[in-house]
Amino acid sequence: MARAPPAREAARPCRGHLRSHTISRGAMSRRSILVLCGGASALVLAAAACQSWTVATPAARAFVGRHLARAYGLTFEAQGPTTLALLPAPRLRFQHVRVLNGGRLLAESRSLEVQLGLGALLTGQAEAAALTLAGTRLVLPEDDDRWAGPLARLTARLADGARPLRRLSVTEGRITAGESGSDRLGDLTLSVSWPRAGAGLDLSGRFSWRGVPTHVVFAAARPLDLAMGTPSPVRATIAWPSGSLDLDGTGSWQGGPALAGEGRFTTRALSETLAWVGARAPLAPALGRVTLEGRFEARPDTLAMPSLRLVLADTVLDGAGAATLGPDGRLALSGTLAAERLDLSALLPGRAEAGSADAPLALAPWTGGDLDLRVSAAAARIGPLQAEDVAAGLLVRAGAVEASLGRATLQGGTVKGRAVLVDAGSAGLEAKLQGTADRVDLGSLLTDLGLARPILGRVQGSLALDAAGADLAEMTRRVGGRVSVTVDDGEIAGVALAETPGAEPALRRGGRLPFERAQVTLGLSAGLGEITQGQIRTASSALTLRGRVVLPEQRFAAEVEPSARDPLRSAEGRPARYELAGPWGAPRLRLLSPPRPASPALPAAASAYAP
């Protein structure tokens, strides 16, 4: 039986196994070293690629300039150092850049970073995939077409399948009118994304226009479709400190831009917003908080809204309208609107803001634009007056305002009228007023106007007045025309008819004088009114009125005389004449010539004693 080897010998490896193990360890060490070296090299290369390297500016400028010249006919200039970075994408950064078309400046920038497309770069061409500009000025043409050629070439290239500029970023930018013109936009910050030619373009940014900071968001538009005359969806939002504009529709470019869709415009001060955009509107002093929304069709300088809702302060109007902006910034508006409740108190051209009759009247602020408006309302307020079933019109032209009232129900009656104001230059205003009233409750009307109620009843009549002056007081002193008024079933305050048994009736102060009808025809000239016809008929008397009305002083003086067969006359037929005079709201009655007492009657036989 063989003897087992010692335990020490059994644990000793053989030489062949030891040699194999040594070779394996050496191979693994070399592979690890190679991997580590390769990784370190890759890291070094990656770090180097991420770093910016200064390159020769003329060569880099020529590299980019050849592409711009070939594709768009542009000249590319750059000065100062140029840097190159390879990661995360190859890009060149230039300093003091200028882009020109035929020697005419299109844009200049303090710095320009161009991200190069990899596909074009492998073929040795410079095609921009993204641009980042800082301290940039874009030049808008004034009387030339410096942008027309490059834009036409861009459209053709995109139509042929060329890839668009996918990203554009602008900071510290501005846009000027011409090379030496003033800034149109300042403080421009812009971010544009356009992944491919057939896709929509997304734009967001902010800028300062005429000193007002403005934010804009523009989405969904397909520029290539617009450039080729094909409709494209458009969504845009513009916001500024006092308002905003939201649009959602379809745009096209055929002989110029056009846009149709739904929109909403709101502002806290419309006159301020219009002045900011360079437009002059009619009735500007009355234009405060405004909201306008509905369907629209817009082209340069024109806007049509076949369906709209207009909110002026607390008044809501629905209808249709249109607007045109003239070359001088004059805005012309037209529309037909309806409202449940309408407040026209602010639309009183030339009113004195302080309410003083001596305050100068100025029509120019109200006629900065044109207006042709037709309005109907179930209920309306015009100053202190409230009316129902109103149909009115307002026409504004340069230096003239015309307001017409087709009909309105006022205090149970019907009124119609027309008022015209014309700017007379240094002479102030010329005014014409015409109107009719039928069955209006005179007492309630005077109460609404805040006046005393010396006469009550149902009034009908007409007026035709004209005046001129620099203020309301002067116009009142120069007013002329004719007023005819008839009041039925009324009464006069402060006058009464005393009827004592056994005595002749007489007028007295105090109380009220009921009447069946009162008629007055007043001729006005230079603020003075002459009562050419006047009569008051009571149940037992007929009184004739003659006298004058002084409009500037709001006073009148009239003689009241009974008719020839009136009981107020004496038995001898001698009239008892009275004077009714004083302020409109509190006239006083005074007896002018009392009837002479009759002589006692003599007996028939007395004649026999006569000499």
TrEMBL record:
Spans through the membrane: none
GO biological process: regulation of protein targeting to membrane
InterPro entries: AsmA, AsmA-related, TAT_signal
Bias type Low complexity, positions: 601-611
AsmA domain location: 364-528
PROSITE patterns given in the database record: TAT (PS51318)
Disordered: annotated segments: 586-611
Cellular component, GO, one term: plasma membrane
Superkingdom in the source lineage: Bacteria
Record protein name field: AsmA family protein
Native species: Methylobacterium nodulans (strain LMG 21967 / CNCM I-2342 / ORS 2060)
